Amino acid sequence: MSMLNSVLEKLTDEVQANRKSENPVSPLFLNRWSPRAYSSQKVSDSDLNTILESAHWAPSSFNDQPWRFIVAKTEEQLQVFHSFLGDFNKMWATKAPVLVLVASDKLRENGDPNGAHAFDAGTAWGFMALQAKMLGLSTHAIGGFDRDKARELLNIPDHIELHAVISIGYQGDKSDLPAGLQEREIPSGRKPLNKVVFEGKFNS
């Protein structure tokens, strides 16, 4: 409970130094960022199941629940996932104790196209990231991976779209990262809100 209180009640020092919201928001949203350094501490099955359960309660169009989560947590499973990660991401993501491939079914149960499948899967990933942070864990979404190879190795049918590999673990020391990544290991900022919010109509 103390970790949850910390995440919900106050900003970490590194977040305070790098992130300023224009309007009041829960510290949970600012404390959640995407580090690349992971410690060797394992993620418990209980915590992992809580993270996946939270993602499964995301809203979905017609309650189709199109998201699919393929989990790698054993050494053998992780080696398979490592084999289809891009070279850049292999430099750091191989240290994460859990990897989850987020995918979604492009078809509804009756065979019709589901136009909201990717939108819904993205929402589920957001829930996953927030729940992980509430448990004191870090996550990072990885788009750089070989989708064809992942599909083949994981026996994924064509009607399932692959979106991202999510690394999950406890944040480690950035000094363990390659030199080029250490300087990037800080919470990122955001564009001014008026650059992304438009009232009444879109302004280019």
Automatic annotation (TrEMBL):
<protein>
    <submittedName>
        <fullName>Nitroreductase</fullName>
    </submittedName>
</protein>
<comment type="similarity">
    <text>Belongs to the nitroreductase family.</text>
</comment>
<dbReference type="InterPro" id="IPR000415">
    <property type="entry name" value="Nitroreductase-like"/>
</dbReference>
<feature type="domain" description="Nitroreductase">
    <location>
        <begin position="89"/>
        <end position="170"/>
    </location>
</feature>
<dbReference type="InterPro" id="IPR029479">
    <property type="entry name" value="Nitroreductase"/>
</dbReference>
<feature type="domain" description="Nitroreductase">
    <location>
        <begin position="31"/>
        <end position="78"/>
    </location>
</feature>
<keyword id="KW-0560">Oxidoreductase</keyword>
<dbReference type="Pfam" id="PF00881">
    <property type="entry name" value="Nitroreductase"/>
</dbReference>
